[in-house]
């Protein structure tokens, strides 16, 4: 019986599946797909010297998807989440308006560009975002040292939601003037017991960067390795491979 992790190539060809990771940052998502033997190209508006993928392009992700998305077998996107979650909600919204602070809202135009490619895709974002909540993943599902709940919109394919195991305890750090111990680290911000660079590396399973800010932003590779395997499972009837 062939394992899903051994299905690395496009049926009838000698080439591996080609993945585009848009808004790639240092490549947390990229690394998960690479674990399946896939070839991954990253696109980001900022230079990413720590990017771990096979090819990197600096530029606008949406423009790149429109121009080149059809050249890939699968597309992963992680649009910036700052305009989707807590920084723009509640009292923060009024504060932002008062000082003229704005955040990009890129999910809708990213979705439109993805749909135009006709390729299977993923859009990843936070709980308060407008992504369709087809899938939710949590670090506890993979035994990681972060919780980091993330939601995924799946385009052109579907997969069942996996069980969400009970959390083993609290996230370590200060909350409302009280310090709590726990099996998870807070991989965001600084101070207040939040994770150090080495703690984030260990908790997320990322060993190729020491950039604290970008490590905080990065998706744990275990998430996209799971997503890649789930996508492969939808191809098994075509490939004739038993899961």
What distinguishing features does this structure have?
alpha/beta; two-stranded antiparallel ribbon; 7 helices
What do you see in this structure?
- The strands form two sheets. The chain has a seven-stranded mixed β-sheet with strand order 3-2-1-4-5-7-6, with helices on both faces.
- The longest helix has 19 residues.
- The termini are close together.
- Helices cover 28% and strands 16% of the residues.
- Strand 1, helix 1 and strand 2 form a beta-alpha-beta unit.
- It has 243 residues and is α/β, with parallel strands linked by helices.
- The chain has seven helices and nine strands, in the order βαββαβααβββββααα.
Query: What is the count of β-strands?
Result: 9
What kind of oligomer do you see?
single chain
Our estimate of the beta-strand percent is 15-25%
Q: What is the H/E string?
A: EHEEHEHHEEEEEHHH
Overall pLDDT, averaged? 89
The low-confidence runs, each spanning 5 or more residues with pLDDT under 50, are 239-243
The N- to C-terminal Cα distance equals: 8 Å
Task: Give the C-alpha Rg.
Answer: 18 Å
> What structural class should be given to the helix and strand makeup?
alpha/beta
Number of helices: 7
Helix content: 25-40%
Strand order of the largest sheet: 3-2-1-4-5-7-6
What characteristic shape results from the CA principal axes? globular
Q: Biggest sheet, in brief?
A: 7 strands, mixed
Produce a short descriptive summary.
The protein is of the alpha/beta class. 28% of the residues lie in helices and 16% in strands.
């Amino acid at each position: 019986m062939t394992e899903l992790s051994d299905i690395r190539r496009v049926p009838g060809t000698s080439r591996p599946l080609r993945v585009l990771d848009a808004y790639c940052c240092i490549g947390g998502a990229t690394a998960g797909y690479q674990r399946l033997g896939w070839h991954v190209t990253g696109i980001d508006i900022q230079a990413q010297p720590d990017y771990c993928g096979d090819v990197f392009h600096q530029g606008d992700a949406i423009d790149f998807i429109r121009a080149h998305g059809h050249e890939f077998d699968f597309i992963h996107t992680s649009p910036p989440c700052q305009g989707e979650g807590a920084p723009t909600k509640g009292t923060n919204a009024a504060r932002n308006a008062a000082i003229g602070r704005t955040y990009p809202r890129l999910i809708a135009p990213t979705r439109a560009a993805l749909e135009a490619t006709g390729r299977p895709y993923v859009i990843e974002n936070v709980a308060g975002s407008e992504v369709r909540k087809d899938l939710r993943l949590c670090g506890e599902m993979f035994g990681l040292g972060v919780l980091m709940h993330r939601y995924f919109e799946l385009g052109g394919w579907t997969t069942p939601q996996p069980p969400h195991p009970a959390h083993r305890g609290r996230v370590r750090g200060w909350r409302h003037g009280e310090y709590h111990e726990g099996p998870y680290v807070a991989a965001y911000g600084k101070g207040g017991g939040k994770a150090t660079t080495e703690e984030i590396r260990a908790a997320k399973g990322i060993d190729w960067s020491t950039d604290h800010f970008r490590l905080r932003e990065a998706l744990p590779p275990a998430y996209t390795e799971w997503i890649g395997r789930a996508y492969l499972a939808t191809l098994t009837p075509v490939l004739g491979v038993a899961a």
